[in-house]
User: Which sequence fits this backbone?
């Protein structure tokens, strides 16, 4: 097979007929290259088998033996047991779950390899081992006596014998001659200076490594590739963004900004002033701004956005501000519009629930340039919204919008400056990947006088105590949020729980207090009224679903109770909690959790109780959930990383990034002869994924 045929359909491989090909296609394995990159989920070290009489409790081991007896054992809890025999003794393999599956998997006399932890319970046993049944048809060489790859599989794949064994059987002979098919794609200087092992070697050895450290070397080579191409994409994007010639050079901040600063009720923090200098510098320059503004909840991003928008307005441009939810858009509107209007600046709110007639009027004001500042939700990027002259787009994205939305909003103007705000402190690795094409500003300081929120874990037993505490605080004038989770898949049930919780609180627990309810299903105008009432102190308690997650700002509300805290992710809890701790009073956050908790949940809740540092929380969240979940990387138009691990491979990431940016700096269109292979490979693997269009 000639080298170019790595793109050939997967059925060109021996052992794959039309049927298998069809199923493989359905899981995304279409070409030979795809199957080469179908990587083991883990390895079993079968290079050494331990004789049964030498097994030690509490160690990992692999044994090989024959099935002597097997069956379901009835008891308080049924279990399935296999008695394995080798020359030296007997070992019990035991399962407490998936009994049907394992029962079907084994037969008497089967030769079995089992790996797992040895424990002692009425003799030696191995619970829920990894196992492989050796049929004795000559497969042993592929499947035993070495480090064995274990592949992900599905029921459909297994039906066609495409289990781990099946993949091994197809891949092993092919990998023997993989050098003939796979060529190096990285430029020589990178390969030699980074001491990269050959790509074909890496592919061979990630599938069938001699030992685990070889597997890790292979993984690192492939991880480097993956990170390099990702950073190459980001470098290209950034180059295109900053090289576009016709950005707007805004005027130096003048009297309007001065007036605005005078009207603020507080002094800007040093951190706010620092980021404003960075933003102003970008805005005054001719090259379009693409800046990420990072700041923990409560660090005061809104006012930074407002000042930036006023800078655009002062230069005769419009500014657009896109928020992820209606409540948040409304909130920003309420915060900003009084100030703006005192300065004679027209500001409008555009969301999808603005009534049609009103909306038409607003659209008119936007297109004629009568509205200088437009605040809204995603409604802003609809086609019918035409700006007169938008110069700055602010996106308060809380990682909900993706690259597409950013681009669409940007297209509403001619090279407007873009400021993206996020409240989640972004671990460095993600800043370099998910936001790798942006410049970053960080507000690393909270406004003065904030007391750290005290966070307390409670359960059903201690609930009455929590309620007594709330009552006392309400008596002294504080307000309270009680938050119920609302998760999309279980939305109906969750909504019911929130409504019922509200009824109970109102009628039974706090009959003498004023209790309000707010959630996403309440009509927009009513919701606004409820928020207004809460803000004015006309409710003591606001029961809500997670609609208040972002942006709500009522400083007098200093206590929050989060129901079913175990159901939330760490960052989300941190965001929620950030709704309190905004005033001078000591704030409290009660995490109500239902036992028993999973280990993960326990770790999350404990972390939250022990720190209010958003950075630490984000790092831990990333560790617990992985980058995909943490960020919804898909939304960001980033590929899922198959090999690289953003936590472990930080050093590789830096190196890959350095190379990628260097190459694009020297050869922005990848036209040089020495970059042709790179270019071909990049386009082939990445172009359709990113809709780049800028190269090629
Ligand atoms: P976030 O960064 O979470 O969006 P906000 O912009 O909502 O934070 O600000 C949180 C609160 O802090 C608001 O009530 C805001 O008015 C107040 N605030 C912002 N900057 C300052 C400051 N420099 N000094 C005092 N209070 C401030
Ligand atoms: Mg905010």
Assistant:
């Amino acid at each position: 097979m000639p080298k170019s045929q790595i793109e050939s359909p997967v059925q060109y491989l021996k052992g794959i007929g039309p049927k298998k090909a069809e199923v493989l296609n359905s899981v995304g394995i279409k070409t030979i290259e795809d199957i080469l990159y179908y990587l083991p989920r883990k390895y079993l070290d079968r290079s050494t088998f331990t004789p049964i009489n030498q097994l030690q409790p509490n160690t990992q081991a692999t044994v090989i033996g024959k099935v002597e007896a097997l069956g379901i054992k009835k008891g308080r809890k049924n279990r399935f047991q296999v008695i394995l025999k080798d020359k030296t003794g007997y070992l019990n393999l035991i399962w407490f779950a998936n009994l049907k599956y394992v029962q079907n998997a084994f037969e008497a006399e089967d030769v079995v390899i089992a790996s797992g932890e040895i424990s002692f319970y009425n003799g030696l046993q191995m619970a829920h081992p990894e196992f492989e049944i050796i049929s004795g048809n000559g497969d042993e060489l592929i499947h035993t006596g070495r480090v064995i790859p274990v592949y992900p599989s599905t029921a459909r794949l297994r039906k066609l014998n495409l289990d781990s064994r099946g993949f091994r059987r197809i891949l092993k002979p092919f990998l023997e001659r993989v050098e003939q098919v796979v060529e190096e794609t990285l430029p020589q200087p990178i390969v030699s200076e980074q001491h990269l092992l050959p790509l074909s070697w890496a592919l061979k050895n990630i599938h069938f490594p001699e030992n685990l450290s070889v597997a890790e070397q292979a993984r690192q080579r492939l991880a480097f590739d993956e990170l390099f191409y990702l950073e190459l994409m980001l470098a290209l994007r950034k180059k295109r963004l900053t090289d576009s010639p016709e950005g707007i050079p805004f005027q130096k901040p003048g009297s309007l900004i001065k007036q605005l600063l005078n009207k603020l009720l507080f002094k800007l923090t040093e951190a706010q002033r620092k980021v404003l200098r960075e933003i102003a510098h970008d805005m005054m320059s001719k090259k379009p701004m693409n800046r990420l503004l990072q700041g923990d909840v409560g660090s005061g991003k809104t006012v930074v956005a407002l000042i930036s928008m006023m800078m655009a307005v002062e230069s005769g441009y419009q500014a657009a501000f896109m928020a992820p939810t209606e409540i948040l858009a409304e909130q920003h509107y309420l915060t900003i519009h009084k100030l703006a209007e005192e300065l004679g600046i027209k500001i409008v709110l555009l969301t999808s629930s603005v009534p049609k007639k009103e909306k038409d009027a607003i659209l008119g004001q936007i297109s004629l340039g009568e509205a200088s500042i437009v605040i809204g939700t995603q409604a802003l990027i609809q086609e019918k919204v035409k700006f007169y002259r938008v110069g700055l787009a602010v996106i308060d994205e809380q990682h909900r919008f993706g690259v597409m939305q950013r681009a669409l909003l940007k297209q509403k103007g001619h090279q407007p400056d873009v400021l993206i705000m996020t409240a989640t402190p972004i671990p460095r690795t993600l800043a370099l990947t998910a936001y790798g094409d942006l410049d970053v500003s960080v507000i690393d300081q909270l406004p003065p006088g904030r007391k750290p929120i005290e966070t307390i874990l409670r359960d059903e037993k201690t609930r009455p105590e929590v309620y007594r505490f709330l009552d006392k605080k309400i008596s002294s004038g504080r307000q309270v949020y009680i938050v119920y989770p609302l998760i999309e898949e279980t939305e109906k049930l969750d909504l019911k729980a929130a409504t019922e919780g509200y009824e109970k609180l109102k009628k039974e627990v706090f009959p003498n207090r004023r209790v309000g309810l707010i959630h996403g299903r309440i009509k927009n105008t009513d919701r606004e009224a409820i928020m207004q009432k809460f803000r004015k102190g006309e409710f003591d308690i606001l029961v809500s679903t997670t609609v208040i997650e972002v942006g709500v700002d009522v400083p007098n509300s200093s206590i929050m109770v989060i129901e079913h805290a175990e159901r939330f992710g760490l960052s989300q809890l941190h965001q929620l909690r950030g709704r309190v701790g905004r005033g001078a009073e000591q704030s409290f956050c009660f995490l109500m959790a239902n036992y028993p908790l999973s280990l993960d949940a326990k770790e999350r809740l404990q972390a939250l109780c022990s720190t209010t540092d958003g950075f630490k929380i984000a790092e831990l969240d990333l560790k617990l959930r992985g980058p995909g979940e943490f960020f919804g990387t898909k939304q960001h138009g980033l590929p899922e990383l198959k090999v690289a691990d953003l936590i472990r491979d930080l050093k590789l990431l830096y190196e890959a990034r350095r190379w990628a940016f260097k190459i694009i700096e020297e050869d922005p269109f990848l036209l040089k002869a020495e970059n042709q292979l790179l270019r071909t490979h990049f386009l082939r693997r990445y172009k359709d994924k990113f809709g780049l269009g800028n190269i090629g």
